[in-house]
Structures are given as structure tokens and as C-alpha cells.
Amino acid sequence: MRKLVGLACLLWASAVVAAPADAVKTRIDGLRELGAAFKAIRDGLAGDEPQTILIQQSARQVRNAASQMSGWFPAGSGAESGAKTSAKAEIWTQPARFKADMDSFVAAAARFQKVAAGGDGAAMRAAMADLGGTCKGCHDSFRVPRTS
Ligand code: HEC
After folding, report:
1. Distance CA 116, CA 104 (A)
2. What does the alpha-carbon distance between residue 72 and residue 31 come to, in Å, rounded to a whole number?
3. Closest atom of ligand 1 to CA, residue 39
4. 141, 89 Cβ separation under 8 angstroms
5. What does the pLDDT read at residue 146?
């Protein structure tokens, strides 16, 4: 029994050690999906006629990402995790500011989905600009700018 407990502790400890790098992967996978969904919205609104089905489906994906995002930044998942990440340390040193940016995005994602359900092209374009502004707002403060 004691051996089993020891093994359990060991497994638990290694899971904790592995966690930050896994968290970075989960985050980046999620952000890539979010990026693809946002691009699909832009594409869906690029022509004269909005591609409503594509846009509504992508709006749902953005909404899903928004509902998961608060779990994507656990403590220890910054550069100190050793994983390749562009997440700035300010995410964890200025949590209130970071949360405010995340809340703006979550609200804009919900608004976009509502507008997308209405199917009006001009309204969707305006809501997409607002949504995109919340991505940029957070990236400007909390993502290391790309060098390439
Ligand atoms: C609350 C902050 C925040 C919001 C809101 C946000 N992002 Fe990001 N995003 C980040 C951070 C931080 C990174 C860097 C993550 C990393 O490298 O670990 C990032 C990285 C990304 C990446 C790059 C992933 C990769 O390949 O490395 C994409 C794409 C992306 N975001 C798209 C979006 C889009 C599209 C939106 C809006 C619809 C958005 N993000 C909203 C914080 C945010």
C-alpha cells in the first residue's frame, strides 16, 4: 500500500511538472483554431453577399474559444515553462488588466454571434470590426510582437 501511495505521488508530481508545457500547447492550439474561425468570418464577409452559414458556424467556434480562454493561461505557462510561447509575463503580473481584455473579447464574441444570427451584412461587418479590435487590444498588450 505504501508503495502504491509513493507511486501515486510520483505520478502526480510528474503530471504537475509536465503541466505548463501542455498548457502552452492547449493554448496555442486553441488560439490557432480561433484565428482560423476569425479568418473564416472575414472571408465570409469579403464578397457582396455574406456567406451566412459559414459565418454563423465560425461565430459559434469563436464563442467556444471565448468560453475556454480563461483556462488557457494557468500560472507557470509563460516563458518560464520552457515552451516556445509569445505570452508576455504581464498576463500574470497584471491579471486585472488581462482579465479586462479577455472580458471585452468574450462580450464581443457574444455580440457577434447575435448579430450573425440576424444575417445582415453591414451589421456583421461592424460587429466583426469590434471583435477584431478586441483581439488586437489584447495582442498589443500581452503578446510578444512577431519578429518576422
Ligand atoms: C485576452 C487576450 C487575447 C485575446 C482577447 C485574443 N488573443 Fe490571440 N493571443 C493572445 C496571446 C497572449 C497569444 C500568444 C500565446 C502564446 O504564444 O502562448 C496569442 C496568440 C494568438 C495567435 C497565434 C497562435 C500561434 O500560432 O502561436 C493567433 C492566431 C491568435 N492569437 C488569434 C486571435 C484572434 C483571432 C483573436 C480574436 C478573435 C484573439 N487571438 C484574441 C492573447 C489574446
Report:
1. 18
2. 9
3. 35
4. no
5. 77
pLDDT of residue 8: 58
Taking CA atoms only, the protein residue closest to ligand 1 atom 32 is 35
Residue 84 CA: which ligand 1 atom is closest? 17
Q: Are 114 and 63 in contact (CB under 8 A)?
A: no
Mean pLDDT of the chain: 91
* The C-alpha cell that represents 52 in the structure block: 451566412
Measuring CA to CA, which residue among 115, 9, 111, 139 is closest to residue 52? Answer: 115
Ligand 1 mean position, distance from CA 139 (Å): 6
The CB of 101 under 6 Å from ligand 1? The reply is yes
Instruction: Quote the cell numbers at residue 105.
Output: 473579447
What is the C-alpha to C-alpha distance for residues 101 and 28, in angstroms, rounded to an integer? 18
93: its cell numbers: 503580473
Cell of 82: 520552457
Distance CA 2, CA 63 (A): 47
Residues making up the chain, counted from first to last: 148
